[in-house]
Write a structure and sequence with these properties.
This protein has about 180 residues and is an alpha+beta fold. The protein has two helices and seven strands. The chain is globular, with a radius of gyration of 20 Å.
């Protein structure tokens, strides 16, 4: 293990986006819906998490945990009885983390109409069975779309890091204010 990075050292080869592509199809049953017969947002997030993890597993070939799920757009409701198809692939790999994109479509089983209902970005972190961070292979984007997603993933990472830092500082200020209040009472 590298003492500075905390990473278990391996020399992973680069992998293609195509080798990470994953897909899941679900039929929406009464247990998945609210009283109006629409798919629950939390259930959809669960399906997104699972499909995202499949791509991260295929890229890292080790255990992964979800570090963040951001930028989910719920575009249209999904109805009871619809067939939900989720597709995922890794957009970019960093050191131990990977950004995965998930896109979701719903198919009306009677009309055959298919609509895009949601999209999300997730970050998965590769770990070993002891919870130690693992270095992941780099990603080799090939098509123009893959190259665009690869570039955008770096911008989103920078935005995530800035937001993480801002929230951390906010928590420190709140903790200091609460400590001051306790001292005064
Ligand atoms: C994700 C986790 C392993 C990161 O561990 P950590 O000690 O904070 O690790 P570090 O700060 O060294 O970051 C390690 C990597 O994770 C990324 N990371 C950590 N927190 C992150 C976050 N909130 N959002 C995005 N990426 C994050 C870092 O950018 C870094 O990526 P890199 O190695 O590619 O540069 C740890 O926070 C954890 O176990 N969280 C709980 C995960 C979980 O239970 N998920 C739900 C169930 S699967």
């Amino acid at each position: 293990m590298n003492e500075t990075t905390g990473l278990t050292e391996t020399s992973p080869i680069a992998r293609t986006v195509a080798s990470t592509q994953s897909e899941m199809t679900e039929i929406i049953l009464p247990n998945d819906t609210n009283v109006l017969g629409n798919l629950l947002g939390g259930r959809l997030m669960h399906f997104i998490d699972l499909t995202g993890a499949m791509a991260a597993f295929r890229h890292s070939r080790t255990h992964v945990v979800t570090a963040a799920m951001d930028h989910i757009d719920f575009i249209r409701p999904v109805r009871l009885g619809d067939l939900l198809t989720l597709k995922s692939s890794v957009n970019r790999a960093f050191t131990s983390s990977m950004e995965v994109g998930v896109k979701v479509w719903a198919e009306n089983t009677r009309t055959g109409g298919v609509v895009h209902v949601a999209s999300a970005y997730l970050v998965f972190v590769a770990i070993d069975e002891h919870g130690r961070l693992q270095r992941v292979p780099q990603l080799q984007p090939e098509t123009p779309d893959e190259i665009r997603r690869f570039a955008d993933a770096l911008l989103r990472r920078k935005h995530r890091e800035a937001e993480h830092k801002r929230r951390h500082e906010e928590r420190l200020i709140t903790a200091a204010q609460e400590e001051t209040k306790e001292g005064e009472s």
